[in-house]
Design goal:
The chain is of the alpha+beta class and 263 residues long. It is 14% helix and 31% strand. The chain is built from five helices and 16 strands. It has helices spanning 2-21, 128-131, 139-143, 213-216, 259-262; strands spanning 23-31, 42-45, 51-53, 59-65, 71-76, 79-85, 91-95, 106-109, 112-115, 123-125, 150-154, 163-167, 180-183, 186-188, 201-207, 224-229. The strands form five sheets. A five-stranded mixed sheet has the order 10-15-16-13-14, with no helix packed on it. A four-stranded antiparallel sheet has the order 3-2-5-6, with no helix packed on it. Strands 4-1-7 form a three-stranded mixed sheet.
Length: 263
Amino acid sequence: MILKKVINTLLIAMFATCVHAQTTTIKGKVLQEDGSALKGVNIKLKNSNTIVQTTSSGDFSIQVPEKANNVLIFTSIGFAKREIDLKKQTQLNVTLEILAKDGEEVVVVGYGTQKKKDLTGAVAKVNIAELQKAPVRSFEEALGGRVAGVQVTSTDGQPGSPIAIVIRGNNSVTQDNSPLYVVDGFPLENPNNNAINPSDIESIEVLKDASASAIYGARAANGVILITTKKGKAGKTEFNFNSFYGMQNIINKIDVLSPYEFL
């Protein structure tokens, strides 16, 4: 009886040693493209239920059986899935690429950004390339006829006179109907838009509905025009030059009384 127990114990020990010898420990580290560590990446052995996660430093350790076709699958939210054939490797350094999602255009709204599909307000983006083709003195004149729901009119024919912009009709009978201008994140009250060179503008967005008041308050009741100017970029120095001139003449001058003749 005692001999039988000893034999059983030896068999169990030999079986455990055999099972232990049939697995291999794979260690490694998961990084982003910039070299920083990725935490919480799921690492799964293909065609099995073995799953581990990376630590805060991006390190991982996983037990795999000793066979020739082991494949590890690396997945993480926001990153492209990657499969790696081990081929008897025991140490891995894996880099995951950021997942590029087509069709999810980002729109700048106020102090943040939002995906276009999630945007509930009416936002219009001006084509800057087309706008700069128009020989005008200010971007206000170039907006005329380019954005639906935006009316651009001149108060008088005097050179340099201000341009009146009304978004989605007149909202007030006694007060000013001009929109709020936000240049590079700074709200401006009644700005001199002639001082902004149209060639210096990177983008123009028009917030056309009342939801803009949730960002800028009552000043946005008549709509908001967001202007982003160009900034320096890394790379070779480039110079762009664009110029034009224009003349204004009275086509038909009416002969009227002078002040003394009128008196």
